[in-house]
Backbone:
């Protein structure tokens, strides 16, 4: 992404005064969620602050927890180490628990095609390569996967209010171990702009030819 | 362009307003409904310019430069930047040598991240009561909870007041425990000259955008007294493939905010002193207790109630609190309850499923301990009889705003009859039996 464009996005968000990921008035995180669901043709997106957070969310969302097993054949050594740290064993081959897509500026436009090829119940999309720091998302069509993953990233809550009150109408969805895996609106805004630009560059308008 | 610029100023205070009818009774609110928004964090041209400059640097250098600047400010030996406060606490525990199945003593009254970080370290949190004056971990209760499996004691500098670290240090030394600070509320807080985060063997600190020292979104910092602790934490991340890295965007934001932190600290201290002096004069309200030599950073400002001082001693304290709360909110003071449920009674610590199948709670006898509310009498008393201000003292609010808060407390305190009437009309459960009222 051009430095000027990044500067515009960062300045816009900072001028809005909304830089906290749990502000009711934040528009950046929902904006990136919408873009990712549209590009991947999945119903739900969960934004998180790293690839490993997304792996955790993808597993926890499916109810895969300590003592469970998943096929490990396709996992990188780093991912396998992380999954093992969660207490999930990685053995053999088989249908993956999640698919992984890593994006950077050169391959960001391939997201729709790669998502179309994905078959697992959840896709881990690593946005770190876009250049704004660790960032990732889980894409899924399963509302329960989404609901569980959302609660994992915000201390078992489902919004700012319930994070403070700890009210929960669906206790079965609350994970036992909880993290702050929330993504910054500033990072989300930059990632969204980068993804939007990769789409534009493939549109031949002829305007600059 | 959407901007955070306030569209209308508050009118200057007028002493006559203190004697006007309560807003709950139809009188004018001390802070008009359309002027109640408190903007935080304060974002300046300097922040924007620093961010734009950071774009032209290597991301790793932006994060490293910020980390070193903040480490130096805190005075800690080593610092590890993280993506969140919870991650920093996890790293502090790992660096302090906490291992799977160890027990870590934490206060029952704090945000859930404190205890979840213990679980993240595959250890078992053991909950103890707080001191009735400071609301931080009671050292005597901590000592009583030590077992042969205890590896660390993790006090929280609740609301920004450092815990009794000298007593806890003596306990830790005597029993061979690590001392890990949760400094997530305590940016710039001090015991004597020692800044929170630099006092323990390790510390974790949230730097999320709603803290006294905000980064651009989410972030945290783990501090270590020794290189060994720092290296142990870094090794933990590498061995387990965990990505807790801080974004350069967050770090760049923090770099410019750090330069202004002493200014905002000074405004917070000034406003806290102003409000505290006036609360003392109301009779009904008391300001936070700050021990001699301690510096409170006022991430939150907890206000006590003395019903007996205004002839309400015959009422239940929590009923008085609920009535006062309602009257204050009507005046436009967004007083709150915070963490009404002590941590052992939050769902994850009642069910103790942890990472799944009870891990790591199954590793220690403490993991199956059943707590009762009566285990935490000081916490329950505090919840019954106090309210907190959050952004209203955290933000460098306009002078006229802090004066209007002052006058709102004076106005409500001068109407014990109204408090009594309201308390008599309401059936209010104890705070720990219901969700917190957020304003």
Residues:
């Amino acid at each position: 992404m051009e430095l000027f464009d990044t500067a515009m996005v960062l300045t816009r968000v900072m001028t809005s005064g909304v830089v906290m990921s749990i502000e009711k008035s934040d528009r950046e995180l929902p904006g990136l969620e919408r873009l990712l669901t549209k590009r991947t043709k999945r119903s739900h997106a969960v934004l998180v602050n790293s690839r490993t957070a997304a792996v955790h969310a993808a597993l926890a969302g499916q109810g895969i927890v300590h003592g469970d097993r998943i096929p490990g054949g396709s996992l990188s050594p780093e991912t396998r180490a992380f999954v093992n740290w969660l207490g999930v064993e990685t053995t053999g081959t088989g249908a993956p628990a999640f698919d992984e897509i890593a994006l950077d500026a050169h391959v960001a436009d391939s997201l729709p095609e790669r998502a179309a090829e994905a078959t697992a119940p959840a896709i881990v999309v690593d946005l770190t390569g876009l250049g704004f720091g660790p960032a990732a998302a889980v894409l899924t069509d399963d509302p329960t996967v989404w609901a569980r993953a959302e609660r994992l990233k915000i201390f078992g809550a489902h919004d700012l209010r319930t994070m403070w009150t700890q009210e929960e109408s669906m206790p079965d969805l609350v994970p036992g171990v909880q993290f702050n895996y929330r993504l910054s609106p500033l990072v989300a805004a930059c990632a969204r702009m980068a993804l939007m630009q990769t789409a534009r560059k493939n549109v031949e308008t002829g305007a600059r030819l | 362009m959407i901007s955070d610029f306030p569209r209308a100023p508050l009118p200057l205070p007028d002493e006559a307003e203190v004697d006007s009818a309560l807003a709950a009774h139809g009188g004018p609110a001390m802070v008009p409904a359309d002027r109640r928004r408190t903007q935080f964090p304060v974002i300046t041209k300097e922040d924007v310019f620093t961010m734009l400059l950071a774009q032209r640097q290597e991301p790793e250098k932006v994060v490293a430069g910020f980390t070193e600047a903040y480490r130096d400010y805190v005075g800690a030996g080593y610092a590890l930047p993280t993506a969140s406060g919870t991650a920093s606490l996890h790293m502090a525990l790992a660096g302090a040598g906490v291992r799977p199945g160890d027990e870590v003593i934490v206060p029952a009254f704090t945000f859930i991240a404190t205890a979840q970080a213990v679980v993240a370290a595959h250890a078992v949190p053991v909950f103890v009561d707080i001191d009735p004056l400071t609301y931080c971990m009671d050292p005597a209760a901590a000592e009583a909870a030590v077992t042969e499996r205890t590896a660390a004691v993790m006090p929280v500098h609740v609301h920004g007041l450092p815990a009794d670290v000298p007593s806890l240090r003596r306990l830790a030394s005597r029993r061979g425990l690590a001392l890990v600070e949760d400094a997530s509320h305590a940016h710039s807080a001090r015991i004597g000259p020692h800044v929170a985060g630099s006092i323990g063997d390790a510390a974790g600190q949230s730097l999320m955008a709603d803290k006294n020292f905000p980064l651009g979104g989410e972030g945290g910092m783990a501090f270590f007294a020794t290189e060994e602790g720092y290296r142990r934490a870094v090794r933990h991340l590498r061995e387990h493939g965990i990505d807790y890295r801080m974004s350069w965007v967050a770090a760049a934001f923090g770099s410019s905010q750090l330069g202004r932190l002493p200014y905002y600290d000074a405004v917070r201290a000034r406003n806290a002193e102003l409000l505290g002096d006036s609360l003392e004069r109301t009779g009904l309200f008391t300001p936070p207790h700050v021990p001699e030599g301690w510096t409170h950073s006022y991430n939150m400002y907890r206000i006590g109630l003395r019903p007996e001082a205004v002839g309400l001693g015959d009422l239940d304290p929590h009923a008085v609190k609920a009535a006062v709360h309602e009257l204050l909110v009507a005046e436009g003071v967004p007083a709150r309850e915070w963490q009404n449920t002590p941590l052992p009674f939050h769902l994850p610590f009642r069910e103790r499923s942890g990472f799944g199948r009870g891990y790591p709670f199954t590793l220690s006898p403490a993991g199956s301990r059943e707590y009762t509310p009566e285990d935490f009498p000081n916490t329950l008393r505090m919840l019954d009889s106090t309210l907190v201000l959050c952004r209203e003292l955290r933000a460098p609010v306009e002078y006229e705003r802090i004066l209007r808060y002052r006058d709102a407390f004076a106005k409500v305190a001068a109407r014990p009859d109204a408090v009594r009437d309201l308390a008599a009309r309401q059936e209010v459960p104890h705070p720990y039996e219901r969700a917190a009222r957020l304003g």
Observations:
- Chain B is about 40% helix and 10% strand.
- The mean pLDDT of chain B is 96.
- Chain B touches chain A through 62 residues (CB under 8 Å).
- The CA atoms of residues 189 and 395 of chain B lie 16 Å apart.
